[in-house]
Amino acid sequence: MASKIEFQTELEVGIEALWNAITKDKVDLLRKAAPQLLTDAQVIEGDGGLGTLTTIDISAAAPHVPPFKEKIVEFDEANHAVSFQGIEGGFLKLGFTHYNVSFKLDDLADGKILAKTTITYELQKDIDGTQLVEEFSNFAVEYLKTVATYLQKAN
């Protein structure tokens, strides 16, 4: 049975800029925003929309996390909602049997947005995943903050 955690992060960045940064411009923006954290990132298939498949290697920042492949499985541009499913590697090799990370962006006005994050996951039966889930959640928050900080400086 799948578990779920949800949290919100308020960011000072335009909604369209962040939306593009986490979807169609994700790989290019990651290279620019966090070159010290990212070993490699590539779009294997797609254009940043539904079905886009990417590989990401963050071993420079987290040597214990293997490179991973993810796919966009939900893409709702009108409502600024996107979901990424882990396909192979990364946290799947560390104890998750399945995970899906969803971001929903809401405009708060005055150049601020609320990023609602939902992580749905299943862990291997023999793993106490408390620390793993916390690390994965922190990874999602830091990803959003890093991208937002880069976008703020770029403007």
TrEMBL record:
Write out the GO biological process terms. Answer: abscisic acid-activated signaling pathway; defense response
Q: Name one GO molecular function term.
A: protein phosphatase inhibitor activity
Source organism, top-level taxon: Eukaryota
Query: Which intervals hold domain Bet v I/Major latex protein?
Result: 3-153
- GO CC field: cytoplasm; nucleus
Tell me which Pfam families the record gives.
Bet_v_1
Quote the InterPro entries the UniProt record gives.
Bet_v_I/MLP (IPR000916), Bet_v_I_allergen (IPR024949), Plant_def-hormone_signal (IPR050279), START-like_dom_sf (IPR023393)
Query: What's this protein's family per the entry?
Result: Belongs to the BetVI family.
- Protein name (Swiss-Prot/TrEMBL): Bet v I/Major latex protein domain-containing protein
Organism per entry: Dendrobium nobile
Source taxonomy: Eukaryota, Viridiplantae, Streptophyta, Embryophyta, Tracheophyta
